[in-house]
Every structure is written in structure tokens, then in C-alpha cells.
Amino acid sequence: xPVSETDATLVRTFYGALARRDxxxxxxxxxxxxxFGDPIFQELEGRPxxxxxxxxxxxxxxxxxxxxxxxTAGPHEVTAGWIAGYTFTATGRKxxxxxxxxxxxxxxxxxxxxxxxxxxxxxxxxxxxxxxxVVGWTPALRARIRSQAMEGLRxxxxxx
Length: 160
Prior knowledge:
Layout: H1 5-20, H2 23-29, E1 30-38, E2 42-45, H3 47-60, E3 61-73, E4 78-88, E5 93-106, E6 109-116, H4 119-127, H5 131-135, H6 139-157
Parallel strand pairs: 1-6
Antiparallel strand pairs: 1-2, 3-4, 4-5, 5-6
Helix pairs in contact: 1-2, 3-6
InterPro entries: NTF2-like_dom_sf (IPR032710), SnoaL-like (IPR037401)
Domain SnoaL-like: 11-112
Protein name: SnoaL-like domain-containing protein
């Protein structure tokens, strides 16, 4: 289905809500059957899990600062470039992550979001040297980071 300027505006609304840490406004941008993927969480399905991920990132990413660089409407999707700056609480290190996102829409809402960033570059910032530099590219480190992220998501979504 062709993308409209309304879809690009929805993406801008989404990032404005993220910058304000307004989870309710973010959630209103998502279709109930939305899917999300990125290098760490890989594939998440459904609004509850994806909103759980955003909640977790806001809680664990101290001082989150979001800046939207661009939003471009293509024939079938909207792409966005944005920067997430935060302190990675596990190490206390500052991260400035440049992210490229792709969005697809259904019923005027985001039904697919895929974020991509350079994992090795992220690991150097988040984990520091020598860990991020030496092993930031290895499948073992990626698997460990992914496992920890998913465990954090499961814990945060479990009622106390």
C-alpha cells in the first residue's frame, strides 16, 4: 500500500513522544499486531511486548536524549534516522547511537518497525575498551547482550 505524508507525520509524532518519554502517546502510534526488530531485541511481536521494551529502555537508559535527523516517505515505507544518547547503566558509559529505522503501516498505524545500528560501534561505547573493541563483533557477545536484554524484558513484564 502506498505511503502518505500522514504516515510520515505519524513517525514524527512517535519520535516526539519518545523524546518526551510519553509511552501512552508512543503506544497510540502502533497497530495492535505491530512487530519490531533491531540488532539486540531481534524480533518482538505485539504492542505489549514492544511497549515493554521501550519502558525497559527508558528505565535503564539514564538521561535518554532522542533527536530525529530525518523522516523520508518512500513508495511503500517511511524511513527515519535518529540518534539516541543515554548512559548505559550496566557500565555507566555514555552511548550516542545512530539508528536507521524503517516503518510500514496498516490502518493508519505503524505495523512494522525495524531499527538498525552498528552493533560493534555500540558495544565500544557501551562496554568500553578493550571489551567492546576486541569482542564487540563476536557472535558470543551479541548472544550474551541479546540474552540479557530479553531477560530484562521478561522480568519487567512479570507482575510483582
